[in-house]
Structures
1.
Amino acid sequence: MLYLDYAASAPIRPGALEVLTTSIKEDFANPSSVHKLGKGLHKRIEDCRVTFLEFLGAGKNDRLIFTASATEANNTLIEGIHLKTGDAVVVSFADHPSVTAPMERLRKRDIQVIELPLKKDGTPEEEAFLKLLNPSVKLVILTHVNNQSGVILDIGRWGREIKKINPGVHIHVDAAQGFGKIPFSLKDGIIDSLCISSHKIGGPKGAAGLYLHAGVKMLPLLYGGGQEDGLRSSTQAAPLIFSFCEAAREAMETMESSLEHVFKINQRARQCLKEKLEVVDFPFTQHTSPYILTFLLPGISSDIILRHLEQRDIFISSTSACSSRVKGANPVFTALHLPPKMHKFVLRVSFSHETTEADVLTFCDTLAIVYDELRMYIKYKAR
Amino acid sequence: MLYLDYAASAPIRPGALEVLTTSIKEDFANPSSVHKLGKGLHKRIEDCRVTFLEFLGAGKNDRLIFTASATEANNTLIEGIHLKTGDAVVVSFADHPSVTAPMERLRKRDIQVIELPLKKDGTPEEEAFLKLLNPSVKLVILTHVNNQSGVILDIGRWGREIKKINPGVHIHVDAAQGFGKIPFSLKDGIIDSLCISSHKIGGPKGAAGLYLHAGVKMLPLLYGGGQEDGLRSSTQAAPLIFSFCEAAREAMETMESSLEHVFKINQRARQCLKEKLEVVDFPFTQHTSPYILTFLLPGISSDIILRHLEQRDIFISSTSACSSRVKGANPVFTALHLPPKMHKFVLRVSFSHETTEADVLTFCDTLAIVYDELRMYIKYKAR
């Protein structure tokens, strides 16, 4: 089996698996219980929190809230910070649905939703974007690494540019695809909030985090026992948090070498695809994460390609798993300026530190075979 | 170690552990992915959903939404159903914080929150309660098994009484402490929604469910990829769902024999406590779950008792873990008519199918020793 859909979800790392299986057996108490079993778990959760804040380069009074998903983290922030009628939010429609779908609810509250304009290469249209930042804009959402284009934003630089123009704006970053893979730091205190995800870096599904810069005020989405500093009530899923923490530790420790490795893999894949399939086009080439490679393969619809690849036990995708339910035009493709007639030809492969050169060559060869077979079949049928 | 705090959280069942550890390794794909790895997971999640609906005695078009916690399930329902200014909600303040804390948010929306009146034994004050159900009441929240008093509500009977008076009302049930332990069925279609929890029945923390009767309309709390029938976006944590499903299967299959066993254990505990500690008082005796035993031990504050018990590796509680952060008067104790001067003497032990008679005797003997020692020490100091 050849799995090249790591951006959708990654297998659990051995260390994270070990932490989870041990913890799930031993750490059965409720971390909110006042006896020492509860207090012990509480203490270890607080240690994980500190670890994550260190990984993020966070400041002294910054906070991190554990949630069950990056979707929950994004929703909690977007719904939780103070926005009133007439305020505006700037967001790219190329972002993940967990960022764009909550905009519906904001619109119902008469909050204006303004599109962050992108260039054809998936990077922000700088001048046009900065011009939008009038004082009514209270929230700007940035995506550290776009799950489709792979485009990396230098969130520090963009943050500074944005705050030069509108110092009071809240900047939220969706870092689900970047955390543990592409370096960034929050140490300059420019970013107000940021979400991270466990299962994208080899931690278990069901864990994620919401970073909050010191002084950020918000209301919770979940009310109850007041866990997570009152911002996310629910029994804390201690084993998932500990395992997420271990996955993050492994990812952070090996980030540089993994990045170097995946960069080579990505280059090899591009080269091989170009060689084997003349029609292949790479629409995103500027500042992209090597972990994600989106390309167009005109001629055969991507759902047919995916089906033929999976028959050969190769698993890739065309868009984010969370966008797979989209009926009709994919708004992410539109925001990324992919021509409508090309939408059905989009393919996305995504890599991990474990992907080998042999893997990408196998993928590339198989894709070329599948493509040629299908083309021949279509030609044959057309005769 | 003697753990008697199962109502706070229960150890994972061996079968559920096996399912989890296997699934966490093998089921790494994203259940929303369109390839067969994703579709396979999707199918198995749907199978679990059907299993849960069967366990609940649900009807043909009823739904179950997987969430990350019972708190999330309660919040999703309370926030998601249509309530407008001037509507009223009836809820007992003896209920879990995940039911009572979201009332704050409803009050801000000018929705009236009316207290469901209880008798001294923790059961509803029937006549007074039913009198409250005027047409402006759109939501009634019932707790199947109260986590403090252990009182079991016959939700079918109460549902019918309520709907006789107010047929249009939505009845939501918090069944976190009862599901898999105390039988109930939703087959008569009277209950509109109900929440269940994984970690209370030996499943992993981080999984729960919200049952919705056919035709219930609501908005989601989490927007994004549209998972869970559009009502709970987030990558589905497949391994947690599968493990929760297995824990529920074990709990349902052994419910009757476990209940019989725990009933005996509870009787033995009451008897022993009465024999060894004359001052013990059991305020809740009518229709209580044998899994929960709350009693008053006047003389020594419960936090001191808990500390001395935990020094002997015995773990009990005084109230729900989610209420442990409450400063000052515990509103649950007040709603249950415990006299304010007795609040500091409340103790709660909770059992599982694995608790033995020897366990409760050890607990009882140790509590008597601890109590006597502390009394002597206090007397000595007072001289």
2.
Amino acid sequence: MSTHGNHNGHSNHTPPILLAIAGFDPSCGAGVAADLKTFAAHNCYGIAAITALTVQSTQGVRAVHATPTATLRAQLDALAEDANIAAAKIGMLANRANAATVAEFLDKNKFAHVILDPVSRPTAGDAELLDSAGLKFVRDELLKRATVVTPNIPEAEFLTGLQVRDVPSMKAAGQKLLEMGARAVVVTGGHLEKPTDVLCDPAGVETFGGDHVRSQHTHGSGCTFSSAIAAQLATGQNLRDAVILAKAYVTQAIEKAYQTGKGAGPLNQLFRFHQEPPARGVHEVPQHGMHPAAEPAAH
Amino acid sequence: MSTHGNHNGHSNHTPPILLAIAGFDPSCGAGVAADLKTFAAHNCYGIAAITALTVQSTQGVRAVHATPTATLRAQLDALAEDANIAAAKIGMLANRANAATVAEFLDKNKFAHVILDPVSRPTAGDAELLDSAGLKFVRDELLKRATVVTPNIPEAEFLTGLQVRDVPSMKAAGQKLLEMGARAVVVTGGHLEKPTDVLCDPAGVETFGGDHVRSQHTHGSGCTFSSAIAAQLATGQNLRDAVILAKAYVTQAIEKAYQTGKGAGPLNQLFRFHQEPPARGVHEVPQHGMHPAAEPAAH
């Protein structure tokens, strides 16, 4: 992290810069938009390489346009050559070619923190967010390049081949992912009656419970959770505290969510910024004729 | 604007929903990322249809991958069928086909506010952000479908064919754009020694001066300005006040900018949220063992 002088004589501090590698959701509940909002909520600056444009709304994913591999590679290279990246978070990859491009990128650029959310299918809609060759590549190649992997229960089942139904089987899946090469695993159980996350790393296994928030507005909770872990690690937390803080953050973002369309709404990742909405949505209203911006210019 | 109950029994208010139609800048200084941050800074919820993926960093634009027209149309339709859109902001369009798709979309969906930023070339890099057939389409077709058009000086020159060098010629260009079908025009003069914006609408012509902020971190200032106008209009300001407030906001976002790469950094659109950064980047640190999220689950 470095501080650079601004040419106006002020010196504004550069926060940690976090890279999201993921798909774009136009409804902005999931994917890169969720990642960028989560980074901002943790006072980090987000940059992003887009692996795919999805066609989706709060009612589900309708279609996927994968980014051409050369464009994805060019985006990644341009960013890594320019910015000092404190952590990378990987979400939707669309297909094997893009997953392989990301693996090459991680081999070229050694980041302190690489958080892999092995996104495969959306909760709503029947579109494929990663093709089957891509899923195998994630399991066999990308898993071991990540510092933390955050599968939900269906993703843990695919990656391990185990049946995962409860906390004991989540622990077994987490252990198996460590054996398969993951350095640390958080199996997320947001869909359990009592949502419980299981952290497995070489230090041991730990479970974290939480209260179930009754809300349909949970679109993007997986993206938000893994991005919050990335932000906490980049700002100096250890993994255990990062998981605890990320879980508490996601719970609050669901509690503060609001409807944005006809279906499952997004989390409110920026809830911390919006607790006291000012009148008419404006923070500082300059007095006309007194604020510099309002002074008539010489004609 | 409507309020819906959340299933958890709370009823969180839905803010105005604003649609950005623009390109994606991976360095997140300009384009859709700048638009979404600006909407959020004004307590609005942003959604976005991406017209192109650019390859760029703070050092300039290297390449453009235009979104296939069918994908752009599908994104737009999915959003408009799902959300209640208070204002649309249009930025980079990449090519004539995508510009025409946006014109059809505006004909199908009548929005109260349509802010058109007629983006043509980047400040840094020699990539084309809109092809020449697209520029003609914007001039001949899209201009008259907007409620406010926000060209900078080079864009005003292209659209009108006039030479624009100073405030009198900015006024002449603004008047000509009204004659060409625009309903209101703001010619932005951020590159003038004394940055001055000129507002032309049927009520008359007005100029707004401002202080020049000496900073290289102005990447995305045009996107940010037009998105701030969209947010102010959507939250009830009249156009004159929207322009004054947007200009003051952009000035502050430049003053609060920081370096993110080796070149021209982005504005800090979220500066209002970051005035008192907490220790270690975390707002609420739950007490381990006391916060619900940190309680060990039943094993």
